[in-house]
Amino acid sequence: MHVSKRFLAHCSLPDGVFPTSAHPFEGRALRAAVIGTGAISRSHLTALTELAADNEVELVAAVDVDEAAVAAFCAVAVAEAAATTHPAPRPYTDLDLMLAEERPDLVTVCTPPTLHRAQSVAALRAGAWVWCEKPPCPSLADFDAVEAAEGTDGGPFASVVFQHRFGSGTRHVRRLLAERALGRPLVAHCQTTWYRDTAYYAVPWRGRWDTEGGGPAMGHGIHQMDLLLDLLGPWTEVRAMAGRLVHDVQTEDVSTALVRFDSGAMATVVNSVLSPDEVSRIRVDCERATVELTHLYGHRNDDWRVTPAPGVPEAQVAEWRDFGPDVPSSHTAQLRELVASMRAGVRPRSSGADGRTSLELITALYKSAFTGGTVRAGEIGPGDPYYTVLHGGAPGWAPPDSTRKTGDTGKTGDTGNTGGTDNADDTEVAA
Ligand SMILES: NC(=O)c1ccc[n+]([C@@H]2O[C@H](COP(=O)([O-])OP(=O)(O)OC[C@H]3O[C@@H](n4cnc5c(N)ncnc54)[C@H](O)[C@@H]3O)[C@@H](O)[C@H]2O)c1
């Protein structure tokens, strides 16, 4: 089979796992399709184009209910793919038709969150692996329905776009923390303090539970919380507060939380759209060093800082500060790993339980904030009002007409809204 050296250099499969010669993708580029051709789809196109140049994928189709949008996307795809020999992707306005005609191996979902469940399930049932934008789904119930539609042995699996987990900086720090090279992690801070003005919230679908899914905890802070969990491992309990301090919204515009981890470490989490001095930050104080990431919408090696505790030898510090060749966090970095997992027939990172962790923490954050209690990991399941909707029906937070249905409509074109989401707020391309 063809797997380029450049491609393998970027892959990080679990130890001892190699692409098998018996896999159905052997010897050919993976057939990929994009659903939803709005703002974030351009980051998917960049990633797909880079892998197409290595003959790892071929973009065969794109789908959008907006005919002009999908036509424009396909035109850009053709222009960007000039270096490859692949034919132009075909535009569709009907997802089911695309799945039937194109039989893609991989579908990337770039539509608003309310569509993620039905479209991911449709793609899995058609045999395609799924790479779905954050937030993965509006609720844990929706996430579990997607997971239930996955294949059992060798895929197809559905993974979530959490590009901040990928790249050389995160990989280096994750290894240092996992190996306890810096000693035990003790105290952490996780901060998404951004600024969104009144005009931003004048757009009708913003600030609403049914169309946006949640406030800044869900829509903006999810990347940093997901990265915190990726670095520190399982959490055990959360206590939180949420407020509407400025904007006329159904959801919160700020939240704070205290999180305890399995390891014993404790973290503060702040998610705000009220902060004129915008920053995304993660800081972990360990016994032997503090490691800190400061950026806004994406990071590279220079955005990480390691500060040793007194007495740590210089040579040791130099090793900790050696992040290796710079691979910025990006959709491309995550897609390379995903494609490697597909070729190996193994569950990719950021899927299944690993892809669910930040959604569970956010759900628990809302439950704690709205009930005033401590919420423990694993306690929100079927029967819990927060399992199906993040406001949990809480007085003062749930909209007056909140009788949200949670069943799978099975309708992949059921827009629920007209496609508007956070199109310029949390990606490095929009920074
Ligand atoms: N990973 C990141 O950093 C990042 C950044 C921005 C947005 N996002 C996420 O990406 C997703 C999309 O956001 P966006 O900003 O690109 O939104 P957008 O509004 O710019 O684009 C959404 C597209 O989906 C299309 N659409 C709507 N209903 C459809 C249907 N039934 N079938 C097919 N297409 C349909 C719309 O016509 C539109 O073109 C959201 O979940 C958002 O949170 C992620």
From TrEMBL:
Q: Which domain of life is it from?
A: Bacteria
> What's one Pfam family here?
GFO_IDH_MocA_C3
Q: Which residues form the signal peptide?
A: none
Q: Which residues form the GFO/IDH/MocA-like oxidoreductase domain?
A: 171-291
The record ties this protein, via SUPFAM superfamilies, to: Glyceraldehyde-3-phosphate dehydrogenase-like, C-terminal domain (SSF55347), NAD(P)-binding Rossmann-fold domains (SSF51735)
Q: Can you give the residue ranges of the Gfo/Idh/MocA-like oxidoreductase N-terminal domain?
A: 30-149
User: Region Disordered: start and end of each range?
Assistant: 391-431
Instruction: Spell out the molecular function terms from Gene Ontology.
Output: nucleotide binding
UniProt name for this protein: Gfo/Idh/MocA family oxidoreductase
